[in-house]
Each structure stands twice: as C-alpha cells, then as structure tokens.
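Thread amino acids onto this structure.
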C-alpha cells in the first residue's frame, strides 16, 4: 500500500456498521405508529373478523399438517415393523433349512447304521451256524473215538 493511500484511509473516521443477517431483515416488523386517526367500529369488526378467519385457516391448516404427520409416522412405523418381520422370516427360513439338512444327515446315518446292523446280524447267524456245525462235527468225532 502506498503512503498516500494509507494516509487517506487513516484520515477518514471508521464507521461501525452493525452486521445484520438476512433472517433478521426478513422478520423485521416496523413499529406501529399511531396516526391519530381512530378506526371506525365497522373497520374494527372487519379487522377482528379477518383475524378470526386467519386463525381458523391456520388452525385448519395445522390440523391437516398434524394428520399428515401422524399418517406418515404410522406408515413409517408399519414399514419398519414389516422390514423387521421380513428379516426375521428370512432368518427363520434359513435356520429351518439348516435343521432340515441336519435331519436328512441323521436319517442317512441311521439308514447306514441299520444296514450295517443287518449285515452284522447276518454274519452273526452265519457264525452261529458254523459253530453248531463245528459242535456237531466235534460230537461226531468224539463218538467215533
């Protein structure tokens, strides 16, 4: 910055401008100024009627908004519960399939064991027959001696 520019800036007094946000400007309501002219009774009734009409409109609008919000919350709650139930059904179905698989494996193992038992019973009967034949031969050989 040049020397002259610095002097010019220093020579002017600083002005404090308060900062105002846009929301403050939009919500600014100028103060009511009395003009000294009173409203007639008819104008007062008309203003009161307009105020009541506006209040009625506002109440009705708020009731509609309240009903809409209540409906939306109900739908959101229903979707949430439906989603939870859907997830639970999927989990239960998966576990059921796993248990059915376990039952099939147990049934196959049981069938294998029954087949093995039948085979062992057959072998046992064959050995019993051989033992009886062996006893008969032994008895016959003793009798011959």
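Threaded sequence (145 positions):
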């Amino acid at each position: 910055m040049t020397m002259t520019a610095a002097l010019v800036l220093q020579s002017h007094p600083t002005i404090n401008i308060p900062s105002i946000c846009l929301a403050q400007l939009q919500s600014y309501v100028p103060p009511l100024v009395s003009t000294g002219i009173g409203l007639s009774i008819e104008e007062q009734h008309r203003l009161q009627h307009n105020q009541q009409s506006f209040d009625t409109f506002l109440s009705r609008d708020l009731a509609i908004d309240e009903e809409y919000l209540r409906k939306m919350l109900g739908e959101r709650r229903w979707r949430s519960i439906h989603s939870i139930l859907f997830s639970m059904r999927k989990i239960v179905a998966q576990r059921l399939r796993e248990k059915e698989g376990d039952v099939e494996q147990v049934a196959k193992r049981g069938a294998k064991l029954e087949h093995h038992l039948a085979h062992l019973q057959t072998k046992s009967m064959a050995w019993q027959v051989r033992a009886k034949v062996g006893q008969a031969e032994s008895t016959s050989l003793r009798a011959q001696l």
